[in-house]
Amino acid sequence: MAHPEITMSDDTIHNPKEPRHFMRAKIVPRTVRVRHGGKVIAESNNVLRVTELEKDILDPVFYFPKEDIFIPLFPLDGKTSHCPLKGDASYFAVDDKGETIAWAYEAAFELAKVINGRIAFFPDHVVIEEVGASS
């Protein structure tokens, strides 16, 4: 069955090879905080909420500016993944035990460059909370 031409909102980022794969990135209008082991490890009022539609609607992901991460994150050598919309992701641990808690697209594709220089956290390894109005 042929699909009619798909038209999406102007403020979404589309995979040029698959127009049904797209994402929308918007600044969260509140401060967002990340806790790990009871400690605040990131807090920012400049967080992007990225919602992506792939084969399904994915849970929103919060991307923090690197300068708003309060602890060092350790790169996990050899652990990468590829997204046809965003590019190649690298992964990070909070300590030398190697528990993967975050990822980043250090060189996202040009169409997804809005997430360059930002870190996202796995919500099943940290607590992410929106805590109030941004300044």
Task: Characterise this structure.
It is a single chain. The chain has no helices and eleven strands. With 135 residues, the chain is mainly beta. It has a single domain, classed as Domain of unknown function (DUF427) (Metal Binding Protein, Guanine Nucleotide Exchange Factor, Chain A, Beta Complex). The radius of gyration is 16 Å and the shape is globular. The N terminus is likely disordered.
Short description:
This protein has 135 residues and is mainly β.
Determine the mean pLDDT. Answer: 85
Q: Say what the CATH topology is.
A: Metal Binding Protein, Guanine Nucleotide Exchange Factor, Chain A
The topology string of helices and strands comes to: EEEEEEEEEEE
The total tally of domains equals 1
Largest sheet: 8 strands, antiparallel
Helix content estimate: under 10%
CATH architecture assignment: Beta Complex
The number of helices is 0
Work out the strand percent: over 45%
Task: Provide the structure class.
Answer: mainly beta
Strand order of the largest sheet: 1-2-5-6-10-9-8-7
**Cα distance spanning the termini:** 50 Å
Pfam families: NTP_transf_9
Protein name: DUF427 domain-containing protein
